[in-house]
């Protein structure tokens, strides 16, 4: 490849040893885990690309901030530092800390949704939709059609289709839509960004009908960077400036601090509406803790405030995006099918195309993630039919996207680690026809991808692997 990739904008001060296991050891670990990479022990993993959630390497400033934790039960000074930072960098007036992002999703769903409501969004996310449905809402996908096509190479595949949004308003009435959930970026589409113009247009349409705009801001800094890079007129602006403008078109956000806030635990719900804030403070006491800590220690809030500041450093976020893109470029050069364009936090393998001999009901993405681990000790994550779950009638959702996510933790791995990942997946792709399907042998009722267990489909009498479920 003739591209130039920026070097790491940091020095390594502390290291954590990792070890490569044998194939036999990995086979045993995979069987213990029921072919579910979530159930693998981290000690059995060589390079861990399961998630970028809570896996960040914190900076020396953040580690120093841990020593400044004010562990008062109420009114911690770290809470006020975090609040002031959220106000400065995101622009929202009020903030309630939560133990992580799904705590914020839970609070928002409980205080904003009534049974029978509809919540539109630019593609679902697993925990977000689960909280919305548990509160009695129906999720409606209003993302552009191209987002469901892994090979559609558009700069902003996370954009909302305004016609779909308008059609939902006309169908059910604005009074049944408490807010639109606008993800920036869109995880399950491949980490795809939303353009600033689309954010403006969504805000205008929603507010014209009295509908709130609530961001899933988990990877909003990555979205701001991709606006700077891809949207005309923004190349000369700082990521921090673009981020602040993005957030100005919304009424609040849910945030998993474990991603773009660069901490190992924490999140928050932010908003501008004082009544919504009061409702959140009442509920957070029941489910999380006092409104001034929300399930977090003071030291965690301090580290998150510092992480927010560091996240908008242009050198940091440039390297972050380039490292992910490097992995994508290595795989694309070997003709491995991936979602295009490469997004901000991960490279997504197109498992439907990678294992095109398997039907979707044989869980190709789940099996591909398992086989990647068996091949090289690299842990990844299924994002397909297993993650999509079942509908209210008990039938499997069949998403167009059947993906495996290779999620790059922030400030953790080097380009050499990305080479190991790319080489092992390339080797696996060349031998992909031998890979069988799976059958699910244990399925929890909610968010099954975390703890479901699988077994390879049986061998037929002639010794060939069975690749499809029986009719």
From TrEMBL:
Its EC number is 4.1.99.2. It is an enzyme of class 4 (lyase). One of its GO terms (molecular function) is tyrosine phenol-lyase activity. The keyword Lyase applies. Residues 48-423 form the Aromatic amino acid beta-eliminating lyase/threonine aldolase domain. InterPro entries: ArAA_b-elim_lyase/Thr_aldolase, Beta-eliminating_lyase, PyrdxlP-dep_Trfase, PyrdxlP-dep_Trfase_major, PyrdxlP-dep_Trfase_small, Tryptophanase_CS, Tyr_phenol_ly. Its cofactor is pyridoxal 5'-phosphate. Keywords: Lyase, Pyridoxal phosphate. Belongs to the beta-eliminating lyase family. This is Tyrosine phenol-lyase. It comes from Deinococcus ficus. The gene is tpl.
